[in-house]
Amino acid sequence: MDKKYGVYICTGCGIGDTLDMEALVDVPEEEGVNCTTHPFLCSKEGVAVIQKDVDDGKVNAMVIGACSRRVNFDVFNFDGCIVERTNLREGVVWPHSRETYPMLTEDQKDDEEHFDPVQMKAEDYIKMGMIRVEKVNLPEAYQTESFSKKILVLGGGVTGMSAALDAAKTGYDVTIVEKADKLGGYAANMRSQMPVSEPFEELRAPVVNELIAEVESFSNIDVKTSTQVARIAGQPGEFTVTFKKPGEKIPFDVPFPLPEEMLVDENGKELDAEAQHAKYLEFNEGREDILQLDPNGELYGAVVLAAGWRPAVLKGEAYAHLGLDLPDVVTNDEFEKIAAKGKIIKPSDGKEAKNVVFIQSPGKEEDDADFEYTGSVTSQVALKQARYVRDDYADGKAYIIYQHMRTPGLQEYFYKSMQQEDGVFMTKGAVTEVIQQGNNLAVTASNTLLGENLAIKADMVVVAGGMVPATKDDPIINLAYRQGPGFRDNDIFGQYADSNYICFPYETQRTGIYAAGAVRRSMTIEESIEDATGAALKAIQCIESANRGMAVHPRSGDITYPDFFFQRCTQCKRCTVECPFGALDDDAKGTPKANPTRCRRCGTCMGACPERIISFADYTIDSIGSQVKAVGVPSEDDYDEPPFRFLALICENDAFPALDMVGMNKIDYSPNVRFITVRCLGSVNTIWIKDALAQGMDGVILIGCKHGDDYQCHFVKGSELAEVRVKKIGDALSSLALEEERVAFAEVAIDEYDKLPEIINAFVEEVEALGPNPFKGF
């Protein structure tokens, strides 16, 4: 692309009133680049000015100095052009008023005692924008060699069938894979479902049979029962899937998870991710075929994981007081199966079970927790099963002893109706003992709402077992990925299929694979049906995006993808290991192998690479590094007391919007900080920090999303990785005789904009107390 440069600066929204426009225009014109100003650049007339220059062939790489790139992004969109948005409004003139920082007089401009920090910032931003359009290229979309729009649904229960029907109704071909010999899943063994219509007081018959009949009526839904997925290789749009019968062994089965003894070193200490990765490669030595496509496999565009759940197995000393070894003490799962066969009867002798106690938590005096994998669903199941007792026996009695009763949404009406039901007794309490007493059971409980201990004579006791996701201890999807066949880091989610639960439900860390139903969290049938719709729509969205070479969320529409300069690759594996989405495999020689449609375009690989060989068309080590070097760093040669200069690298998902809101609310912070927005803090390469300090900047701060178990990072681990890298850079700073405090890391949520000025100013004050960077002026 033969670039033709142009700079356009808006003077509206206070920009022209706050800045010395003549001096600002001189910045590009001194470089031989034409600069045009307009009082209302985003207006129809303003856009027409730019469009005319484009149509006349004068400009195809432009810097627009106006408002934030987060607004008017559709207005300043010029086909075939590189567009850099320089944030003069929210980033300069709105937070830094002339009341606080007066504009210099003509006499002061040439005086070394005076400087204008606001004008300096604006001019630096224009310079940074100009160097970026010089360093980046117009991206071209990646095109797959072959492409499929078929959707694979793993699981033939209510969730899986609902997802398949939703996709099929939009015209997509769908394959349902079910390991059992028939469709239906757990719902096929249920007696009733929760109420779904007003007044939410009556149970309804399961919908499973209706769904099965509907699935069978669709010609574009292929059902494979008694079948499992042996392996999924490839990427969205071209997943190659190999099927097998349950129990069948095929040569390329991935031997994973690793045996426990291979996850620890010789001292029994758990290995880090990189060491585990090395063990994995060693474990698969000579079996590189696990990463290859199966020539006999079937091609799919996206996958919906709807494998459901299995009942929790309650055993161990912690539950000994509940009498789980007694024949008439059953789990809620076992009770449902009994109820589905007819009237409720005792397992021990087949006699009527009219008095039933439902235990919702482990109990004991000091324990107020629930059973594992329980929640609102198990609360609703207890209410539903209590209704069975009343429906089967006019004189039946149901006792529900709970620590937490959760009935969200409209199910509260059902809860209230059960409260009014004769023969149903509910109380908060801790069950202390369940023992056999003749032909009956004796249940005792303490700490009840009534303040008294309870002693109940019962025919049966039902213990609320949780809904364990099918993904626990079994990857199910069996991915032929170097990072393993399942999901990463799902210990955070309690072995549920992972997703960025705040922003992107359904989306797992494996691009193109969307979780729905009880593999994502415990859900009722009604919730699972709704969840299936969301996952099906996400799968369709992924297919259509991949077909156009575009990324899915959160950088939806991005057509860039990582490019490698393999001549300098040292095969260190850092990019492969640190990629949050498993977008990189290794070839047989251990060289990274990119899967572009798996990629979320976060740039974490770029930040991880010590050789700096990874780049994107419009986002490179050089483009950001050149922006850093474009920042003016005043020294004593320029001013008697030169201002400090700071660099802030901020993520585009939380910190950047928060910074915009700071500007919109006209909250002041140090104007000596230059902000560069990055795709994710995980993409920050430490060379940018070193370059900033080497050219004399006084400090560098990275500001990103919150991380941890309740992370808010759109790319899962970007902020966490960045913080680790910042800590490791301390040794390098010491070798340069620089204080570690000159480089900092901070977290901020998108709605914590009011805290951002405090974070920035506190960092500035701390570094100013250290004094200027000794490299300033060299």
UniProtKB/TrEMBL annotation:
<dbReference type="Pfam" id="PF13187">
    <property type="entry name" value="Fer4_9"/>
</dbReference>
<feature type="domain" description="4Fe-4S ferredoxin-type">
    <location>
        <begin position="590"/>
        <end position="619"/>
    </location>
</feature>
<keyword id="KW-0274">FAD</keyword>
<dbReference type="InterPro" id="IPR036188">
    <property type="entry name" value="FAD/NAD-bd_sf"/>
</dbReference>
<dbReference type="InterPro" id="IPR006076">
    <property type="entry name" value="FAD-dep_OxRdtase"/>
</dbReference>
<keyword id="KW-0411">Iron-sulfur</keyword>
<dbReference type="Pfam" id="PF02662">
    <property type="entry name" value="FlpD"/>
</dbReference>
<dbReference type="GO" id="GO:0016491">
    <property type="term" value="F:oxidoreductase activity"/>
</dbReference>
<dbReference type="InterPro" id="IPR003813">
    <property type="entry name" value="MvhD/FlpD"/>
</dbReference>
<keyword id="KW-0408">Iron</keyword>
<dbReference type="InterPro" id="IPR017900">
    <property type="entry name" value="4Fe4S_Fe_S_CS"/>
</dbReference>
<dbReference type="InterPro" id="IPR039650">
    <property type="entry name" value="HdrA-like"/>
</dbReference>
<dbReference type="GO" id="GO:0046872">
    <property type="term" value="F:metal ion binding"/>
</dbReference>
<keyword id="KW-0560">Oxidoreductase</keyword>
<dbReference type="Pfam" id="PF01266">
    <property type="entry name" value="DAO"/>
</dbReference>
<protein>
    <submittedName>
        <fullName>QmoB: predicted quinone interacting membrane bound oxidoreductase, subunit B</fullName>
    </submittedName>
</protein>
<keyword id="KW-0479">Metal-binding</keyword>
<keyword id="KW-0004">4Fe-4S</keyword>
<feature type="domain" description="4Fe-4S ferredoxin-type">
    <location>
        <begin position="560"/>
        <end position="589"/>
    </location>
</feature>
<dbReference type="InterPro" id="IPR017896">
    <property type="entry name" value="4Fe4S_Fe-S-bd"/>
</dbReference>
<dbReference type="GO" id="GO:0051539">
    <property type="term" value="F:4 iron, 4 sulfur cluster binding"/>
</dbReference>
<keyword id="KW-0285">Flavoprotein</keyword>
<comment type="similarity">
    <text>Belongs to the HdrA family.</text>
</comment>
